[in-house]
Prior knowledge:
This protein is of the alpha/beta class. It is 34% helix and 26% strand. Strand 8, helix 4 (150-167) and strand 9 form a beta-alpha-beta unit.
Amino acid sequence: MVNIGLLGAVSVGKTTLLRLFVLYVKKNKIDSIDGGKSCTVIKHDFSGEAVLNPDASDKETKTIHPNRVIFKEDDTGKNHTLFAPGGDRSRAVVRMGIITISRIAKQIVAVFACDRPIEEQFEFFNDVRYFPKEIYVCFNKFDLIEVEDKDAYLNEIQEKVNDFFTKRKIIVREFYRTCAETNEEYTSYNDNAAKMMLQIAVENLN
Ligand SMILES: Nc1nc2c(ncn2[C@@H]2O[C@H](COP(=O)(O)OP(=O)(O)OP(=O)(O)O)[C@@H](O)[C@H]2O)c(=O)[nH]1
Ligand SMILES: [Mg+2]
């Protein structure tokens, strides 16, 4: 059993990443991605979402209480839990979720949104006190990068993120580039997102 926590600033896509994972498992898409295998969703809980503007046509939500997905690897029968607390530290109840998850999750994924300045997203992590020595980093919203050479752009911010965590004596085990919103044009980045969550669960079993 591996507890994985997705942490990151507000609206970087933590909840969407979890929903995408549920979709991949339920539609058996998880079986056919690189390094994939058959899994089953045991339980998922997205009840901690609050609708921001009930009158708007697109009901954008914000996480108040941590989201949770429990899934099973069908071949080994091992269960794993993915947690995604909210990112709005200004609300005490949300901050409590962040602290709780940072303490119970053995593996942490620091999630960043590629379409916003990276420096302002570091502030979130300055407040997180409990961190494992090694973490994973996810650059989400790959589809929203506006520069021509997306990979070059990401290599640049990857270096900044690496510096940021190295200064805190935290090693980044792996960087992932993802798109959490299902998008035909970015299928391989949707796959990367699902692969990230499965891989972290599977490789940390022992
Ligand atoms: N285009 C695009 N939109 C995304 C992606 N990931 C998330 N979004 C959108 O970004 C918005 C915020 O996503 P959430 O998943 O709620 O973000 P969050 O990090 O869980 O937010 P909090 O929990 O409130 O901090 C939603 O409108 C999503 O549809 C992505 O990869 N690409
Ligand atoms: Mg959320």
